[in-house]
Design a protein that fits this description.
With 168 residues, the chain is mostly helical. The protein is built from 8 helices and 2 strands, in the order αααααααββα. It has helices at 2-15, 19-22, 24-28, 47-61, 69-90, 92-98, 101-110, 144-163, and strands spanning 115-118, 126-129. The protein has a two-stranded antiparallel ribbon with strand order 1-2. A hairpin with a 7-residue loop joins strand 1 and strand 2. Helix 4 packs across helix 7. The longest helix has 22 residues, at 69-90. The two termini are 23 Å apart.
């Protein structure tokens, strides 16, 4: 798990948003043509993904039952249901932008990559080379929820790293 989590983060920062292509919840989402597509208010931003990242970090760092296979299976099933229900209610793409924690997480890291893939309406995508971290130079101001998400990303990784040192 750690090798995948850290390795995929580095790969994303080098190559771009591969998660948008490999996301199993996106690929297995069964009911796209039956979506309710309720409008997700703009104020929601990425707050759902931020809350899920905090929950994920707590499970990974604090919870003593995180290595029990049955617990992991139940959590994976629960997360799958939350993700697919969010996609059903708000639409697949809207939920991937706001609520699917891995899509938001790896999407943020992909902004560091010197490679960018722009995917159009169901097309395979167009590859662009750019200077490293050029994806961070977005003219739009960051939302409060995006800033909170980045702070949670940095805080959880920092805490987890510190916790593993002899000093801790």
């Amino acid at each position: 798990w750690i090798a995948w989590w850290i390795g995929f983060a580095y790969l994303t920062a080098l190559v771009g948003d591969l998660w948008s292509v490999l996301n199993p919840w996106k690929a297995l989402y069964p009911a796209r043509r039956f979506e309710l597509r309720r409008q997700l208010p703009a104020a929601v931003g990425v707050w759902p993904a931020t809350a899920l990242l905090l929950a994920f970090a707590w499970i990974e760092i604090v919870w003593e039952g995180n290595a029990v296979p049955a617990n992991i299976a139940w959590l994976a099933l629960g997360y799958s249901l939350v993700t697919w229900i969010g996609m059903f209610v708000f639409g697949r793409e809207a939920w991937l932008r706001s609520g699917e924690v891995f899509a938001v997480y790896f999407g943020m890291l992909a902004r560091l990559a010197p490679v960018e893939v722009r995917v159009g309406n169901g097309t395979a995508g167009e590859w662009n080379l750019r200077p490293p971290a050029a994806g961070l130079l977005d003219a739009r101001p960051a939302t409060a929820s995006a800033a909170a998400f980045v702070i949670v990303m940095l805080a959880t990784v920092t805490f987890d790293g510190l916790r593993e040192t002899p000093l801790w």
